[in-house]
Amino acid sequence: MRGITTTIVCILLTAGPVAAFPPVASVVPQLRPEAQALPVSVERRAPSVEAVSRSLRPILRGAQGARAAARPAPVADPDFRRWIAGFRQRALSRGISAETFDRAFAGVQLQERVVERDRNQAEFSRTLWDYLDSAVSDTRIANGRAALAQHRETLERIERQYRVEAEVVAAVWGLESAYGARRGSTDIISAMATLAHDGRRRDFFEAQLIAALQILQSGDVAPRQMTGSWAGAMGHTQFMPTSYLEHAQDFNGDGRRDIWSDDPTDALASTAAYLRNFGWTHGQPWGVEVRLPRGFDYALTGERTRRGAGFWRRQGVTLADGGPVPDHGDASILLPAGAEGVALMIFDNFRVIERYNPADAYVIGVGHLSDRIAGGPAFRAGWPRGDRALTGEERRELQRRLSAAGFSTGGIDGIIGPNTTEAVRGFQRSAGVVPDGYASLRLLERLR
Length: 448
Prior knowledge:
Shape: globular
Helix content: 40-55%
Number of strands: 10
Largest sheet: 4 strands, antiparallel
Oligomer: single chain
Strand content: 5-15%
Radius of gyration: 22 Å
Strand order of the largest sheet: 8-7-10-9
CATH superfamily of the domain at 74-119 and 184-277: Bacterial muramidase
Number of helices: 17
Order of helices and strands: EEHHEHEHHHHEHHEHHEHEEEHHHHH
CATH class of the domain at 74-119 and 184-277: Mainly Alpha
């Protein structure tokens, strides 16, 4: 598992129109296409009013029906035509019919803007609390409750069949596409072909393109109605094509697994099926806010340490309101902003949400939004709002300085994972400060 960092690495992606609820930004942090194996996507504050929405992630979106696919800046490129001809043979050898391929590629041209976006994804850093201010804003909570009320019967049937709580499915929907408002309108075949031809991640995008052709061949959607993000994710809850093939559901029984249309039924059921297939436990929380006693051993925090409720009760850990921590099996204590921020006890369902998007911020966002949609309270503890997020270069500098001080981070990659978190703890212990593993600017300055 990864360690915790309050820095969210984001990628800006402008998504498309349409909404049943007042739109808010789709918010999805830190993810890379190569790391995805699910309806997952990749990366992602909305304007203060949250009126004009933007999605912050380079992999996901879609919509069928009245909306036509957007085709930005097509370019006639002989090399691209040659690549298509070669890919056609590879696709036919994988069972794609000539008819399906030719229909899918009719009018497809190189999309330079897609290549530009893929090569120039602007990284910026955000703190976890900044991210949650948007992901679990009053507007997103209100929209979530409205969506839940509007689709209550459908979501209740989905919950009965797949054993995933309606509020959890609604929260994923809210973060992925702002409850269907921001599904994306890029032609998926054009975008995937452009990225596969570009070659930077050819294998990944060719696999997604083959999967997209298989979807078309199944008859679930027409070529130009298969729309989504410029990086390939589709529908209300942003499935990549390969994840669609594995998990998409025809819940309304019309013979098509339709995640693109204005009717979100199939997309919501597909999301529930996805979570179920990765081990969701009905009735188990993703996590709960807890209070740690004075003198708590911070070496016990982190996803790598898992203990039962009895152990944590003996350590003096309580719920934030002072009640006993619940017994839902082994759990870990997470300090996403160090000892000065919210403390969480997380359960197996936390790790299931990670299969959708492995960024801790995203998991906490989905979990907390689902709790708020269900009427739960905001976090009781505060955040160290005086802190700012470390930049990518500062994270790499932190790793270099920790390693030079004898606390190995296992590499210099700018990602605050479990090795870096343990190195931070080691340095903190040596410096006589609380070993909470929190990679802060103050820690970097102490190392300097």
